[in-house]
Every structure is written in structure tokens, then in C-alpha cells.
Amino acid sequence: MRMFGRIIGGVLLAAGVVIAGAAAASAAEGQAVEPSITSTGASPDSPSASEDAFPPPDPDRYPTLNVPTESWAYETDYYFALTRGLTYAGVESRVARGFAMLGTVPMDIVTLPGAMLAGLFGT
After folding, report:
1. What gap in Å lies between CA 76 and CA 84, rounded to an integer?
2. Whether the predicted pLDDT of 43 surpasses 90
3. Mean pLDDT score of the chain, rounded to an integer?
4. Cα separation of 85 and 83, whole Å?
5. Statement: residue 95 has pLDDT above 80
6. For residue 24, what are the CA distances in angstroms to 6, 13, 34?
7. 58 to each of 67, 80, 95, 98, 119, how far by Cα in Å?
8. Could you tell me the sign of the dihedral formed by the alpha carbons of 24, 25, 29, 31, in that order?
9. Shortest CA distance to 115 belongs to which of 85, 76, 86, 73?
10. CA distance 97 to 85
11. What are phi and psi of 79, to 5 degrees?
């Protein structure tokens, strides 16, 4: 009974944090204003815009790097990860793998929505 109370308390706490975060974001939505930057790099409200200006970038000191990047792809390794792990764990016997799947398949089904979201981070 004590464990059930802790679980319910944790769920209620998480829901309260999400609701409070959403309320704070909606309250601050109209108040956030970014200062504009002039061509010198300083805010127009500052008294001496020329003193606060950043020096121009030096291309010799910081060369541009043309590093190729891979294209984004949806990650499917999270789907049924526990069941897939039975193969990597070295469970050779089909009987042992069948009994282990009695526990891993239900756990993988429960974690499937989270695996779908985790796949969005991609490779």
C-alpha cells in the first residue's frame, strides 16, 4: 500500500510540474522581447555603441571547416530492445529464449510509446 501511495504521489508531482511549467510559459509568452542588435554589434539603447562593438571575425584565426554530416534518420533500435537483447546476450537455447520472452515482450510493449518518441532523436 505504501508503494502504491508513492507511485500516485510521484505521478501527481510530475503532473503538477508539467502544469506549472505550461502556466509559466503561457504567462511569459507575451513578455519576452529580444533586444535588437545594430550593425556595429551593440544594442541601440547603450550609450556608446562603438565601444561595445565586437571586433570583426578573423578568417585566418578561425578557418571554416567543411565537415560532412550524415543525414537524419529515424532510429528503430529502441523497438523491442529487451527482446532483441536476448540475441546479443548469448541465449542460445530456443526454450530458454522462449521463457525469457514471456517477460521481455510485455515490457517491450509497455515501453513502445517511449521507444517511438526516443526514435525521433534519430541518428
Report:
1. 12
2. no
3. 76
4. 5
5. yes
6. 27, 16, 18
7. 20, 50, 67, 64, 40
8. positive
9. 76
10. 11
11. -70, 125
Rg over CA atoms, the chain? 27
CB atoms within 10 A of CB 115: 16
Whole-angstrom CA distances from 78 to 87, 116, 117 are 15, 8, 10
Burial class (CB in 10 A: 0-12, 13-18, 19+), 36: exposed
Cα 101 from chain centre:
30
First to last CA, the chain: 42
CA 86 to chain centroid: 27
Cell numbers describing residue 13 = 508531482
Q: Answer whether residue 20 shows pLDDT above 90.
A: no
pLDDT reported for residue 102: 92
